């Protein structure tokens, strides 16, 4: 079980309010991703849940029980750190067994669980090595092994993949997702990478300045961002924002349209401009279009290989059903 | 990038290094030489000293006049005892300052260090009187306690700098894994800090072994360590160079041997954790 509720929790460092009063419910078995730019309070929020930081106000409940004043060791949560935080003086076996040893399990049971975890994580051959003798990906797996052996109420991941190279990151992302599908343990995952958030989450919590901007499923956030911040943060490449008369035509202070929702028109077209840089990914081409008169640069995502050179004229039409409208405060207009 | 050093330059550097090393080591070398001379020969001009006959007579005389091993044990007990006691107090203090620093932690650290700038003689009278009132004059207990307090700032500082090198993440991971404070310190912090603790121990044993001000002032016979043993050969009636030298060499030999075998840890200790 791992049902976590945050009720009006706040965090203050000296005179700075890092987290203004905040409410959040995390259902049992959910994979929740906290995402936001650096300094948005996502790691602090995770550390408050872990108990590594004390809240300045409010209440944290795990499975209905008030744990606000309970030390991290007794909250029944496991954490995977960005730096892996393995014990360098212990073998992989002893690293993974450490939480079991602290829980007072007998040696045979410790061994059985460590072997199980090692098998799941492909670490069986490395059990007698020290962390210093492992690669980054293996170390990360040891850290995950140490988290899963104890069968915690929830896993907390603090940017666990940011120290890995790009290829490994994609692999580990899949492994973590698969592990969650199998174990169905509540997971809270902190990242600044919106791709990780979109691909892994059941529920995304977008944070800015310690406040929750929006909570929802990845597709909900993609389709119905509540404000300009969420609209700009979720989705890659970033959403195009257009202000002025072109927005006024839609009865809005600003409109937003994602690069994949702008069509290239042979003739006619709502906007015309010239192509600047084109980025060819093979599967897609990103065109950066200037001189449309509605925005400095419009990014367009064209499927497949598109032959436009620097300086070519181009005509564009946004998909009418995919235009997001925002008021002067940046809030979504329904 | 490695710098290229020409051969003549290397020769000059090596010669200069040896010259400085010998210059620093010379007094000890000369003590060693004098200790193997008779009392009469030891006061001759340097070259005549070298030419005179070699003898073990001073060592025999020193051993028959005073109880070397008694003093040796006192030194061992005082230096090991004060270091162990110091570590017991300093580990929690350094842990707190390194991992849960408050707003005044830096000030506390500097204040502790400032006590090392106080002339010890400034507090001799009160400490002497306290020891007298408690009936602790000329006891090893008093010296262990005083030596511990005298060196405590250094022990705390050194441990603090070592602990600061240990990533806080790892201690937090231990907390998340269910370790209480005791387990966190015992199973994670201390094993990771072993090299630092070892060099702190070594340095403090040496400092306590060599300390002479407090040992000379607070002891007379029963608790007198090797420093007092050396001092007893410098008397108002005149210096007994050969016996003084023999006594000195016997007093510093144990610590010299220990230092020789633990050079690496000592260098690390003396750089206060600045070099990994």
TrEMBL record, chain A:
InterPro entries: AAA+_ATPase (IPR003593), ABC_transporter-like_ATP-bd (IPR003439), ABC_transporter-like_CS (IPR017871), ABC_transpr_MalK-like (IPR015855), ABC_transpr_MalK/UgpC-like (IPR047641), Mo/tungstate-bd_C_term_dom (IPR008995), NA-bd_OB-fold (IPR012340), P-loop_NTPase (IPR027417). One of its GO terms (molecular function) is ATP binding. The keyword ATP-binding applies. Keywords: ATP-binding, Nucleotide-binding, Sugar transport, Transport. Residues 4-234 form the ABC transporter domain. The keyword Transport applies. It comes from the Bacteria. Pfam families: ABC_tran, TOBE_2. SUPFAM superfamilies: MOP-like (SSF50331), P-loop containing nucleoside triphosphate hydrolases (SSF52540). This is ABC transporter ATP-binding protein.
UniProtKB/TrEMBL annotation, chain B:
It holds the Pfam family BPD_transp_1. The chain crosses the membrane at residues 12-33, 72-96, 108-129, 141-163, 184-209, 240-261. InterPro entries: BP-dep_ABC_trans_perm, MetI-like, MetI-like_sf. Residues 72-262 form the ABC transmembrane type-1 domain. It is a multi-pass membrane protein. Gene3D superfamilies: MetI-like. Belongs to the binding-protein-dependent transport system permease family. MalFG subfamily. This is Carbohydrate ABC transporter permease. It comes from Spiribacter onubensis.
């Amino acid at each position: 079980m791992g049902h976590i509720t945050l009720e009006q929790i706040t965090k203050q460092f000296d005179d700075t309010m890092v987290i203004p009063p905040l409410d959040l419910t995390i259902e049992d078995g959910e994979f929740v991703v906290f995402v936001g730019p650096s300094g948005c309070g996502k790691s602090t929020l995770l550390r408050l849940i872990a108990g590594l930081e004390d809240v300045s106000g409010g209440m944290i409940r795990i499975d209905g029980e008030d744990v606000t004043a309970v030390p991290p060791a007794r909250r029944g949560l496991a954490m995977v750190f960005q730096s892996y935080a393995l014990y360098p003086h212990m073998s992989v076996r002893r690293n993974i067994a450490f939480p079991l040893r602290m829980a007072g399990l007998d040696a045979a049971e410790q061994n059985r669980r460590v072997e199980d975890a090692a098998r799941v994580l492909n670490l069986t051959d490395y059990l007698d090595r020290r962390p210093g003798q492992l690669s980054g990906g293996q170390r990360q797996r040891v850290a995950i092994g140490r988290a899963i052996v104890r069968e915690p109420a929830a896993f907390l991941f603090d940017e666990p993949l940011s120290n890995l190279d790009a290829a490994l990151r994609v692999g580990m992302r899949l492994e973590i997702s698969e592990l969650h599908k199998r174990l169905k343990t509540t997971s809270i995952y902190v990242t600044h990478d919106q791709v990780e958030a979109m691909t892994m989450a059941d529920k995304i919590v977008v944070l800015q300045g310690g406040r929750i901007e929006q909570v929802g499923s990845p597709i909900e956030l993609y389709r119905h961002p509540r404000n300009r911040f969420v609209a700009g943060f979720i989705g890659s490449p970033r959403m195009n924002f257009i202000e002025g008369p072109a927005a006024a035509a839609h009865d809005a202070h600003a409109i937003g349209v994602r690069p994949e929702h702008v069509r290239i028109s042979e003739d006619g077209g709502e906007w015309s401009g010239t192509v600047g840089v084109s980025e060819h990914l093979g599967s897609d081409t990103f065109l950066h279009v200037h001189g449309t008169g509605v925005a400095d640069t419009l990014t367009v995502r064209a499927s497949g290989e598109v032959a436009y050179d620097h300086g070519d004229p181009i005509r564009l039409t946004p998909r009418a059903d995919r235009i997001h409208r925002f008021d002067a405060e940046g809030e979504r207009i329904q | 990038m490695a710098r290229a050093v020409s051969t003549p330059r290397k020769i000059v550097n090596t010669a200069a290094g040896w010259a400085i090393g010998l210059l620093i080591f010379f007094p000890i070398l000369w003590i060693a030489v004098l200790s193997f001379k008779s009392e009469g020969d030891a006061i001759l001009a340097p070259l005549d000293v070298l030419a005179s006959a070699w003898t073990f007579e001073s060592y025999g005389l020193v051993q028959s006049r005073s109880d070397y091993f008694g003093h040796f044990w006192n030194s061992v007990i005082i230096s090991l005892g004060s270091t162990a006691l110091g570590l017991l107090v300093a580990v929690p203090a350094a842990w707190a300052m390194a991992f849960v620093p408050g707003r005044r932690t830096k000030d506390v650290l500097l204040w502790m260090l400032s006590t090392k700038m106080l002339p010890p003689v400034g507090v001799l009278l009160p400490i002497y009187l306290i020891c007298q009132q408690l009936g602790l004059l000329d006891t090893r207990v008093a010296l262990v306690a005083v030596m511990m307090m005298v060196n405590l700032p250094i022990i705390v500082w050194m441990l603090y700098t070592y602990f600061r090198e240990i990533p806080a993440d790892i201690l937090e991971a231990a907390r998340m894994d269910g370790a209480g404070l005791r387990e966190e310190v015992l199973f994670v912090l201390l094993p990771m800090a072993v090299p630092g603790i070892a060099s702190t121990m070594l340095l403090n044993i040496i400092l306590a072994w060599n300390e002479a001000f407090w040992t000379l002032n607070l002891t007379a016979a029963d608790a007198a360590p090797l420093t007092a043993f050396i001092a007893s050969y410098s008397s108002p009636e005149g210096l007994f160079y050969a016996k003084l030298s023999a006594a000195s060499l016997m007093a510093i030999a144990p610590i010299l041997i220990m230092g020789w075998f633990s050079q690496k840890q000592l260098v690390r200790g003396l750089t206060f954790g600045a070099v990994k």
